[in-house]
Design goal:
By secondary structure, this protein is an alpha/beta fold. The chain is about 45% helix and about 15% strand. The chain is built from 17 helices and ten strands. An eight-stranded parallel barrel has the order 3-4-5-6-7-8-9-10, surrounded by six helices. Strands 1-2 form a two-stranded antiparallel ribbon. β7 (about 140-150), α7 (about 150-160) and β8 (about 165-170) form a beta-alpha-beta unit. The radius of gyration is 21 Å and the shape is globular.
Amino acid sequence: MLYRTYGKTKNVVSAIGFGGMRFEEGTPEEMAELVQFAYDSGITYFDTAPLYCNNQSEHYFGLAFAEMKKSKGERFFVSTKSSGKTEKKIRKDLENSLQRMGLEYIDFYHAWCVMDWEDYCKRKSSGVFKTMEKLKEEGLIRHICVSTHMNGKEIGNMLKEYPFDGVLIGYSAMNFSYREAALDVAKDLQCGVAIMNPLGGGLIPQHPDVFSFVKTQEKESVVEAALRFLLDDSRITLMLVGFSNKAQIQEAIAAVDGYHPISESNRTRIRSNLHETFNSMCTGCQYCNLCPQHIEIPKFMDAYNQYLLTSKTKDLEKRLTWHWGNYKDALQLNSCLQCGACERNCTQKLPIIQRLQEVYHIVQKDADTNTKK
């Protein structure tokens, strides 16, 4: 495992962090065992949030941390978040997080999911960061950080405007150009950079042939190659990988252990293979999953990704049928009220309503064809 210093904090953390959003179904003890396995394997940074995994993620970590505290191994670091806009809500979120995880303080506490510049300004004017400063003075948090889905230029401006210790951004080999401008600013300001969705929300491993251009070594998997592409960037402190099983942990660690600096010619080749299609893909963050008509938007957006990758309607249909099992449910997309709630919450500002309509028409056309047969 490689370790890097997190910005100006002087904390040395593992280059791979455990993202606590993708636990599989199982007992709490089984999930805690997975966290413990990651720690025993050299991972020292653990990231979660109050709502992850149906409000259970912090609980899973808490069970593991209780055992990890007994170990004489490396110190571990904990990251969690609050989307609160008032001191009362932020304090309540923090108190709950500390209780669930059995901790006296949080190492990296994030203002969660700052969507755009207006959102940032509203949080600042409402005293969110002043509250976090108080919590830091009280010893309840160690470092003030921000989790954001703004574009690179806006993120850079935000980091210049407030002295965050760290920033958490979505970044991968398929969409790095969207936020890359933020990395130079972070480096200049000695702000730690944690990456979420380093595998494109699962799209990269799901389509190894499409993303094979990221490979620079013989016999490396596309997952290893995608992680090494980011690891090669010294502006990045660590990458959060959402683990569901031990094999995924082992593969991520193998990516780090087998890393070699990437040549300039390979970096240029990889970048030249990227195009706008990748920037317009859904990363599966699920913040759009609040439809008043109970449409399961993330599932349909995931299926639409297949359409973007291949331009074949049959690939969209296969994804709905065999992966999500809700092919017929797509006909219910016609119930969409076009209220816009999903698009307002989309971290990438994607045209969700338009895409849902496209999915509906594709499925409807197929249903009409089958009826005529």
